[in-house]
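Subject: for your reference before the review

Hello V.,

The reviewers asked for a structural picture of the protein, and I figured it would be easier to keep everything in one thread rather than splitting it across files. Below is the amino acid sequence we used in the manuscript, unchanged from the supplementary table.
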Amino acid sequence: MDIREQLKDSATNTNFGPIIETLLNREPAPLVPEAAWNKDLNEQIAQLKPQDGVDHTTWSTAVAGLYLWNDDIHKSHDICQDLPSSTGSYWHAIMHRREPDYPNSKYWFRKVDTHPVYSKVREEVLKLTVNDDTLLNAIQEEWDSYAFVDSCEQKADMEFLQAVQELEIVLLLTDCLESFK
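And here is what came back from the structure prediction:
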């Protein structure tokens, strides 16, 4: 099952399904968004109600990811800046990378330290045609979030960088939804 199907499967027993379906059907998100991609989708995200049995932090972590994927970095930031978890710091780091505030992104990646999603991101990136020698060299052993921040700052191959960014978002959101179970 590919990662997009895994995300859909993870969202099956949640009320995130229609929102995720819309996000999966969009063009790859820009590295640096100018505004929310879909304002109606922002309204749908705002209307989501926490699910029974899911604690506030876990719920909020997934919602921050939805806002970020919808290119609303400000709403995502409002949520993720208060999340004490490694996943909350990961969303926070991505948000600052997309702002773009690269040093602040690296600060938040230091707070992430290691994350279970890193190995999955590396595995998926290696399936792509990697046209970025710096990033390719940096991920031979494990995912290097700092090298990816540097690649985004250099903007060498936008299409590739956007594809990697989408992999990262899909995998991290899947991880969030898996914790609902």
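For the response letter, the relevant points are probably these. The CA atoms of residues 65 and 173 lie 6 Å apart. The chain has one domain: 3-178.

Happy to draft the paragraph if you're swamped.

O.
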